Amino acid sequence: MDAIRVCAEVPGSSKPTLTESTSRTETINGSHEFKISGYSLAKGMGIGKYVASDTFTVGGYSWAVYFYPDGKSPEDNSLYVSLFIALASEGVDVRALFELTLVDQSGNERHKVHSHFGRTLESGPYTLKYRGSMWGYKRFFKRTLLESSDYLKDDCLLVRCCVGVVKSSTEGPRSYNIPVPVSDLGYQFGKLLESGKGADVTFHVDGERFLAHRVVLAARSPVFRAQLFGPLRNKNTKRINIEDIEAPIFKMFLHFIYWDELPDMEYLMGTDLKWASTLVAQHLLAAADCYALERLRTICESKLCEGISINTVATTLALAEQHHCFQLKAACLEFIALPANLKAVMETDGFDYLKESCPGLLSELLEYVARLSEHSLASSWNRKEFYPDGCDVNGRRVKQRLH
């Protein structure tokens, strides 16, 4: 951190004024754990061939871990495994610190670590010039030693990667600093719901009663606003019967209206099973669409997208079609169209429901399957093999990019 002082002469004054600014250079740190399952099957894929982690983001850049079971360089003759971290997004002269750790899976904490952190670097942080630039070790570990070590367990390796992106910023003078508390508006409205004070609306749902405040309901939902204050409102707005939402779902729905966030579903439902969370999100999505709560609708779409599986995708697709959730619909169609999933999904009860409730979706699904098949055929026809050091299989130089 460097502080810079600037003196300036002020007309009519014999004393110069003093201003200050501070340059701060620090690292934005993040880490990723990469599990390499089936090491014995990956071994023998060839020198320069690799398995890569999913990309992860640190400091505004995407990164990926590359593991070479047979080594990266031909001169090592497959005697070593290689391990690298690569810049997976566009960037010029990205400066960073790195740490690659091969985890000791015996519990003895004898990890193999190569790290920039916690030591003095003569030339400073490592600089990556462009997308695809790498840092790491061609001879990270000798293969014969690795295969008889505690790093390999149940044919799996575990790699931890830490990245510290170096960022600099300059701050000018501040005459004062008053911390502003975080907004607790949702908390205040939530407590109002819990207390029931001033409630002037009673919802009757499946034999249960829920107290609420019409001004809050109207402010949050245009449907409630029309129902409670519009020219066509019911005469008796103090009692509202809800026919199409179950009581536990309505309780969560009302919680969101006041708190602007969903309650802890695992606590309310007494389970952490993913299918249960997906089922609740399906019901809440229908309620959100009915009462035009766009934020709740988007939250439910996101949760349903995360919960897509063989057993849930057909029902979720039907729901996405019925409530015009186009992004969720596309994700479901893409999942079902995969050859590994299609047959299994077609054997579920949800698929039978999909055919009955939304028969028009079957033609769209066929289009997705056909498009995927065409893409796979074209890819296999045009595919070329490239080595990460910048050469193709024939030794020609190519511009290296990550996809």
TrEMBL record:
Family classification: Belongs to the Tdpoz family.
PANTHER family: BTB DOMAIN-CONTAINING PROTEIN (PTHR26379:SF383), BTB/POZ AND MATH DOMAIN-CONTAINING PROTEIN 1 (PTHR26379)
Biological classification of the source: Eukaryota, Viridiplantae, Streptophyta, Embryophyta, Tracheophyta
Pfam families in the record: BACK_BPM_SPOP (PF24570), BTB (PF00651), MATH_2 (PF22486)
Sequence ranges assigned to domain MATH in this UniProt record: 29-163
Domain of life: Eukaryota
SMART domains: BTB, MATH
Family matches, as InterPro entries: BACK_BPM_SPOP (IPR056423), BPM1-6 (IPR045005), BPM_C (IPR034090), BTB/POZ_dom (IPR000210), MATH/TRAF_dom (IPR002083), SKP1/BTB/POZ_sf (IPR011333), TRAF-like (IPR008974)
Record key words, sorted: Ubl conjugation pathway
Pathway where this protein functions: Protein modification; protein ubiquitination
Keyword match Zinc: no
Primary role: May act as a substrate-specific adapter of an E3 ubiquitin-protein ligase complex (CUL3-RBX1-BTB) which mediates the ubiquitination and subsequent proteasomal degradation of target proteins.
Protein name: BTB domain-containing protein
GO process annotations (BP): cellular response to salt stress; cellular response to water deprivation; protein ubiquitination
